[in-house]
Design a protein that fits this description.
Helix content is 13%, strand content 41%. It is mostly beta strands. The protein starts with a helix and ends in a 14-residue tail after the last helix.
Length: 466
């Protein structure tokens, strides 16, 4: 009690001589800056910094020639510096909290600073799962006889959270992961202190679907953030890591992969759909990939982490397949009508656009683009329309995927070619008939000869004497 009274008397004595006290808050181990008073030009003056009292320990000095120095004795050695007339204290220690005085040779009154302690903490210290209780505490030292500072918490998104005397308790969500900031306001001046909160979760899923085609690779992303380790996940009793697939057709979900959590981490395929994990799971990249997409890839892919307490963390990735359909087919005769359709199976969102790239010699101008140009019609295809057609899906300046189709155009037969073909056909038929007639005639002659000659030595007809 006696020490408090002495502090109040000392502060009152200083204020009577120096005016208002500048209050600065700092955390242990952080850097504190005691800024020189605004509106006062100290460039041409000798400046001195003292600790606790006007004739106390000299911490730093600076002359009007640009020379300067700081205390070299412990505990201030190598922790003090000057920026103009402002005093910077690195790695603030417990004994640093107290009174600092700034004196300029041309200033009749001292400027007094009070360095006060600001403490923030979080409970529990270990990483959290969504749904766990999260408690935050912010304690700001006060001056005897002065009003208490205003304390507010800012979440990692920068939103203000109402508190009761600096303490805050919430149910953790993935949005609570990151730096929480305690803002202490005193005399309209803000001082901030931060504390880190770790909430275990998967990296955010992409905001838009993943697009692929039969001529485009497919990657289904899922990963564990860099600041989360497998050891932390195992400490929270992770049970399984799985991939599921829900087809666009509405069929029942299919289990794709499961991860064995024994050392070494190993993927096990539950169904062979041509997909494969991209890397060693120790690197925390759980994504799936394949070299080329297929129509059957369309649907929702679910990456899930299951824990012993029943909590499941999952991310859903939507996959869409771009397709080109040619009518009446991919092999046409010059002069036929061609209909090409490039689509995702549904109308395009307003932020997506299609671009067509026909063969170089095509009768269609190249390239052409339009958000609604899902269908192309060429009344009469020509030989130049044969080859590779490409349809690309774009969003702003980014190409999302592309699909390709190869058309074969056969030349149309002329009247002369038809006459030649018909003539050759008639000649061949006549030759076949002639061969058949000659063959039949020869057969008949052979048969007649066999009937006239049935013995080797035939006798002539008549009567004979016996």
């Amino acid at each position: 009690m006696r020490n408090v009274i002495q502090s109040v008397l000392l502060l009152a004595a200083l204020m009577s001589k120096t005016g208002a006290v500048e209050v600065v808050y700092a955390q242990l181990g952080e850097t504190a800056t005691l800024k020189s008073p605004g509106g006062v030009n100290l460039q041409n003056e000798y400046v001195y910094w003292h600790f606790e009292k006007e004739d106390g320990l000299q911490l730093a000095w600076r002359n009007n020639m640009g020379g300067s120095g700081t205390a070299s004795a412990e505990p201030w050695k190598d922790r003090l510096s000057l920026s103009d007339a402002s005093l910077i204290i690195k790695d603030v220690q417990q004994n640093d909290f107290g009174t600092f005085l700034l004196k300029g040779t041309g200033v009749t009154r001292l400027t007094t600073y009070k360095l006060l302690k600001l403490t923030v903490s979080v409970n529990p210290l270990s990483p959290l799962l969504p749904g766990d209780s999260l408690s935050l505490f912010c304690n700001a030292q006060t001056l005897p006889g002065h009003k208490d500072p205003k304390i507010q918490w800012l979440n990692p998104s920068g939103e203000k959270i109402k508190t009761s005397q600096g303490s805050l308790t919430v149910r953790a969500t993935s949005q609570d992961n990151g730096q929480w900031t305690c803002v202490v306001t005193y005399d309209k001046k803000e001082n901030k202190a931060t504390v880190s909160v770790t909430v275990l979760d998967l990296s955010p899923a992409p905001l838009h679907p993943q697009y692929t085609s039969k001529s485009w690779p497919l990657t289904v992303p899922c990963s564990i953030p860099a600041h989360i380790s497998w050891d932390q996940l195992k400490a929270k009793d992770i049970q399984d890591v799985r991939w599921h697939f829900v087809p666009e057709s509405g069929f029942s979900p299919q289990s794709l992969f499961s991860l064995s959590l024994a050392d070494p981490l190993t993927w096990k395929a539950d169904q062979d759909r041509g997909l494969r994990p991209v890397t060693d799971p120790k690197k925390k990249n759980l994504s799936l990939t394949r070299n080329r997409g297929t129509e059957e890839d369309e649907g929702d892919y679910v990456c899930a982490l299951g824990f012993k307490n029943g909590v499941t963390l999952n991310r859903t990735v939507h996959v869409k397949v771009l397709q080109i359909i040619s009518s009446p087919g991919t092999e046409l005769i010059s002069g036929q009508q061609l209909n090409l359709t490039c689509s995702l199976g549904h109308p395009l969102p307003s932020d997506l656009q299609l671009k067509w790239f026909p063969p170089e010699q095509s009768s269609l101008s190249s390239p052409t683009s339009d958000r609604d140009l899902a269908h192309l019609t060429i009344p009469e295809v020509g030989k130049g329309d044969g080859g590779k057609w490409r349809c690309e899906l774009w969003q702003s300046n980014a190409r999302l995927t592309s699909a390709e189709i190869t058309l074969k155009i056969e030349p149309k037969m002329s009247s002369w070619m038809l006459v030649v073909i018909c003539s050759v056909t008639v000649i061949v038929i006549l030759l076949l008939i002639l061969v058949f007639i000659l063959y039949r005639r020869r057969q008949k002659m052979t048969h007649l000869r066999r009937r006239l000659c049935k013995c080797k030595t035939p006798k002539p007809k008549g009567f004979y004497r016996t």
